[in-house]
Write a structure and sequence with these properties.
Two copies of one chain form a homodimer. The first copy, chain A, is α/β, with parallel strands linked by helices. Chain A is built from four helices and eleven strands, in the order ββαβαββαβαβββββ. The interface between A and B is large, with 40 and 41 residues.
């Protein structure tokens, strides 16, 4: 097989909160276990992170959550990956801010790069897993919320191989949140599960 | 229900490594994803932790792994929780160092406290989950190994309620390991899943 992709150039960046047991939502999608908004104005690095990306790629479920917010929270372009929604589903007030695509990660990355995007915030469990499997996540900031919720929607899944990470930075906040930034060292095509060699 | 147990007095302390995706072993029990021994002599706080406990409580599966080591690694008393092993299964060279019990966590804690133990290192996935469910874990040190392995034996399970944690300390090591020490704030009987109130 080809050598592992140079992921320092990978397109996707993940920035997400999980419970200490690895869930991003309860089984019904509920986020009531997240700290109530505010935290004394602490944003856990979110604003600084957003400055490093050219836009946001998310799944339909994340999109529908965001639609429930009081106002649209993004000032950068958003792409929603969906096999069921079409461009006719973009609400009038979001035209020009949002597009919907049925493209797979590799194709979408090629399209967005051609438009001049250097990197994107990848959000939502299924989309994150698809980008990880495609070797298109270069960096992940995982913020652990100090709670065990026992069951829910996991952040990670099985992509059929190991992904080695490197810790770039880690910070504990007074609230008990611990935020760790990882670089993804080897892409989704390096099979190390059975003995360490490339397949 | 009764107020949440004062867990500052809880008996169990967990000290364990997991992958970033929350596994303590591959599906077949393999630990090949852990860093090779040594790490330049770094023990990630293990020796200091061991000084804080009076002994070790582990499950059969952990015990059988340890039996495969070159030598018995513990100089404190070990209790193995098992429904299938009996005291006749203690190897001759471990007599006096090891006992086997079929007691459940609450009963075992009562017995060990009566013998003068103040706290124990709780090791092994199933035993950790049983002690968490019983409200008998006061502190957990979780060391995240910088790798996603995709599938395996999870550290945590569903105990039917949330467990709130407080972060006591967090440290990133040059190897990329991130070790976080949590206090368990509310015991296994505080149901917060449906709205936040005690049940």
């Amino acid at each position: 097989m080809a050598p592992a992709k140079a992921l320092s150039n990978a397109f996707g960046k993940v920035f997400i909160a999980t419970s200490v047991d690895g869930f991003i939502a309860r089984p019904d999608g509920s986020l009531d276990w997240l700290p109530a908004g505010g935290d004394g104005g602490e944003d856990y690095g979110y604003a600084a992170f957003m400055k490093t990306v050219d836009g946001i790629v998310m799944g339909r479920s994340t999109y529908e959550s965001v639609l429930g917010f009081e106002s649209w929270p993004f000032d950068k372009p958003v792409v929603v990956m969906s096999r069921t929604l079409g461009s006719g589903d973009v609400p009038v007030h979001l035209r020009g801010k949002l597009r919907i695509t049925s493209a797979q990660p590799a194709q979408l990355v090629a399209e967005l790069r051609a438009e001049g995007w250097g990197s994107a915030y990848i959000d939502g469990g299924a989309v994150i897993r698809a980008f990880l499997a495609a070797g298109e996540v270069g960096e992940m900031t995982i913020t652990r919320v100090p709670v065990l919720i026992g069951a829910g929607r996991p952040l990670f899944g099985d992509i059929g191989c190991d992904l080695r990470l490197a810790c770039l930075a880690s910070q504990a906040y007074p609230s008990g949140m611990v935020s760790t930034r990882y670089r993804v060292e080897a892409g989704g095509r390096v099979m190390v599960r059975n003995g360490g060699g490339d397949e």
